[in-house]
Amino acid sequence: MKNKKKRNRAGGIFLVIFVVSLLIAYFTNPKEEVHKEMLKTRLMEVLDETMLERQDDVIAYSAWKLAGRQMVETFADHYISVDNYFLFSLTRLHWDGESYITGIGGFGEVYITKRLNSELAEKMIKNIEDLVIDSLPDFLK
Fold first, then answer.
1. Exposed, middle or buried, 87 (CB in 10 Å: 0-12/13-18/19+)?
2. DSSP-assigned states of every residue in the chain
3. Staple partner for 50: which of 71, 81, 98, 121, CB 3.0–4.6 Å?
4. Which long-range contacts (CB under 8 A, 24 or more apart) does 22-28 make?
5. What is the spatial distance between Cα 32 and Cα 129, in angstroms, rounded to a whole number?
6. First CA to last CA across the chain, in angstroms?
7. How far is CA 30 from CA 81, 88, 110, 135, in A?
8. pTM for the whole thing?
9. How many other C-beta atoms lie within 10 A of the C-beta of residue 55?
10. Which residues share a beta bridge with 112?
11. Parallel, antiparallel, or unpaired for β 80-84 and 98-106?
């Protein structure tokens, strides 16, 4: 009889811990703004590294130095979304017809994956170059 009581108590404690963990996960799931800020920060780091390697590309490098932060802000507004699953959330980057999971959020933190790399940065820089060139007057193209 004593052994059965111990098992019930252990099962009850486990259940309480499990429920409390679920509640903590639910209430500490990061908001969409936190996901976007973390991804913007990581994007700036990756693009800064890539642009330093491409300093000889005057148009792209100059555009990056002049308006890099604004470009990332605009990019984030259009190409980043967050999927909320209540206990955790995923940061998605929609690019070139595909959707990449680039981050996961939970327990108040957002972790950006290493998938956000220079290959993706190169595609984004190409897009920035095209935007800059398209915005130039015809005689400068």
1. middle
2. -HHHHHHHHHHHHHHHHHHHHHHHHHHTPPPHHHHHHHHHHHHHHHHHHHHHHTTT-HHHHHHHHHHHHHHHHHHHHHHEEEEE-SS-EEEEEEETTEEEEEEEEETTEEEE-TTS-HHHHHHHHHHHHHHHHHHS-GGG-
3. 121
4. 22/87, 24/107, 25/87, 25/88, 25/106, 25/107, 26/86, 26/87, 28/106, 28/107, 28/108
5. 28
6. 87
7. 13, 8, 7, 37
8. 0.73
9. 12
10. 103
11. unpaired
- Residue 118, pLDDT score: 63
Mean pLDDT per 10-residue interval, the chain, length 141 residues: 65 92 96 93 82 72 75 84 96 85 94 75 70 64 50
* Phi–psi pair at 52, nearest 5 degrees: -65, -35
Q: Provide Rg for the chain, Cα atoms.
A: 22
N residues, the chain: 141
Return the half-sphere exposure (C-beta side, CA atoms, 13 A cut-off) of residue 79.
Answer: 22
Closest-CA residue to 121 (of 66, 62, 52): 52
Chain centroid to Cα 73, Å, comes to: 12
Structure tokens given for 141: 């193209």
Measuring CA to CA, which residue among 51, 38, 35 is closest to residue 124? 51
